[in-house]
Here is the input.
Amino acid sequence: MNNQGATMKMELKQGYLFIAFGDQLEYGKIEDIKKELQAHMFDADVDYIIDMQKVENIDSTGFGMIVNFAKKVSVRNKKIVIIVSDEFIRNLFTISQCDRVFPIVKTEEQAKAILKEGWQAEIMIGEY
Here is the structure.
């Protein structure tokens, strides 16, 4: 059993902030990440790509962190795209209807294309 906490790495790229999460985005394991994310969010006037490819598990606390971040991004009229390659975690996003609120893709290239071309949500983040 993996007892690791959650991890997060941020990298400012051309036109967007790339935020890569890893390990367990679960209750009791993400407090430090939430604080760090809040401390650094919006340092730059850019769009956001959230990379979930190294996330092993996510619970409602992890979803809440991502949704709250997405709400703050949308208030500033910035775009957010989430990369999820794992089918189990992708299904969790579908069950929670997050895929109707913000785009869920499988690669960084797809995410960059959406930032460039745009995407229409079925449910506005303020209504979620």
User: Anything to note?
Assistant: The chain has a mean pLDDT of 86. Residues 67 and 99 are 11 Å apart (CA to CA). Residues 32-39+46-127 form a domain with the Transcription Regulator spoIIAA fold (CATH 3.30.750.24). The helical segments are 31-40, 60-75, 87-95, 108-117.
